[in-house]
Write the structure tokens for this entry.
Amino acid sequence: MLEDSILIEKVKAGNRSAFNELVGLYRNRVINTCYKFLLDIEEAEDISQEVFLEVYQSIKFFRGDSKLSTWILRIAVSKSLDEIKKRKRKKRVSSAFKKVHLEDLANWLAGGTTPEKLLSGKEDMKEIIKAMDTLPDNQRIAFTLSKVEGYTNTEIAEIMKTTIIAVESLIYRAKKELIRKLVDILKNV
């Protein structure tokens, strides 16, 4: 396995086997990241192909200001959010949270449990994602990377190219707004 800096230089020089190694190293992380946003494995795999196409086309501009993995995951987050925006244009939120109990949801938002433990199925998580889609992009990204992906605030700051304090503020505001929106939805169920 090549060191990242050597791998980057080889990919920049057009070495296909080096690019294939790069894909092999990061493919699962990219697919997992995309899946956390999209909740559809086929779409996640499709978007991951777009991510690596962008990596291949843009690697010449990679300056090394961040880790290679951070740069690639930033592209994955961006491509996933673009796909969500496409979906939103086609379909609006239509159903409420019938299976999610408010206490369990509040516990998850407070960090007490994981979404996988909270939710009985993929459809429930899709409903939460729909509510999260109403958040401003920067809040949704920070919240998802923190609460769903499990990244630290430092890692999120690197991915989002911002400060740790800004990340903490984004997550706090996202949690507060998401709780407010979900309470409103649950009142109408």
In short: DSSP finds ten helices and no strands in the chain. The chain has two domains: 4-90, 102-187.
